[in-house]
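S.,

As promised, the flavin mononucleotide run. Input:
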Amino acid sequence: MSKIFKPLTLRSVTLKNRIVMAPMLMYTGQEDGTVNDLHLAHYGARALGGVGLITSEVVAVAPQGRISHTDLGLWEDAQIEGLARLSKMIRTCGAKSSLQLAHAGRKSSVEGEIVAASAIAYSDIHRTPAQLTTDEIKEIVRAYARATERARKTGFDCLEIHAAHGYLIHGFLSPLTNQRSDEYGGNEENRNRLLIEIVTAVREIWPQDKPLIVRLSAEDKAGTGGNTVDVTTRLCASLKALGVDLLGISAGGLTPTFDGEIFPGYLVPYASHVRKELNMPVGCNGSITSSELIESILHSGSSDVVYVGRELLRNPFWLLDVAKAAGVELPLAIPTYARATGPYVRGH
Ligand SMILES: Cc1cc2nc3c(=O)[nH]c(=O)nc-3n(C[C@H](O)[C@H](O)[C@H](O)COP(=O)(O)O)c2cc1C
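Predicted complex:
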């Protein structure tokens, strides 16, 4: 019995299956941070391909929070319309949509000053960020709140806060990149404060009937002294209490190297640990491409959904192949496609 195609309901949103398209920055945008035709075609193809939940690439809450000058943004009202068009198009193609809000912190490559928890560069070829002042941190929390107000108007079904992979929020969470001595640095509670404040502000604004997702790196995987899955699980308990509905459990990204082996499903144990400790929905990711592996992840209770990234870049219709192999008949967003799978009927 396939679990991949079993629906999952989070608040008022029902995903038709357990496959989430992982957020992936496509570098196809332009300086104004608005959606263009390539975004529509790219996400539309994956929605037609049967994916249950399409996550957008990073959407920056501030211009200096972009990873690159090609990122999408929600720092001004003019950016709402294109994202609204994108969410409508994803819905029309039969999928649910999730918008990923982010601030790149020290991993930003945009011109001008870049900012982070502490003045520590990501690598030898990256610029050293300016350490944010306490007032500037509070302004970033307000930027997330304002972006969420705008996200409400885009019609996206879910909102995801990117707190993983070494971007601004993760940089605060980890003792390796946060050397502050104010209330945003030092002990675990202080390092978690920025994310807790953002999630508190966002959950108040994001509609109560819509799910809120947080993506985290369960472990820093950047040498000794970094956060471990036990530290992250304690943070996840606080996020659950604040009304987060799903945790996307990833790892690493804090530094250019990954301290561990990479193989299909290598991050699953972290997601499984958090799910079992907290009894809340989680998603895993990491080089997962086979339906057998996904079924075993879902059946063993290691995750509730599986984020699939690069496999969906290679083949937007990968899930249709998986369904066919499993003998599952999916409702087609364009019913005429069935004419290509049934007996040939002449007439055109
Ligand atoms: C081209 C590319 C862009 C990415 N951009 C993002 C992003 O915008 N936000 C994010 O959280 N992760 C991003 N990631 C990480 C993916 O979401 C995912 O975690 C990673 O690709 C591993 O999953 P996979 O092995 O299924 O591809 C990106 C990955 C790739 C390959």
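The radius of gyration is 20 Å. The pocket of flavin mononucleotide is lined by residues 22-25, 57-58, 100, 162, 164-165, 215, 250, 285-288, 308-311 (CB under 6 Å).

- D.
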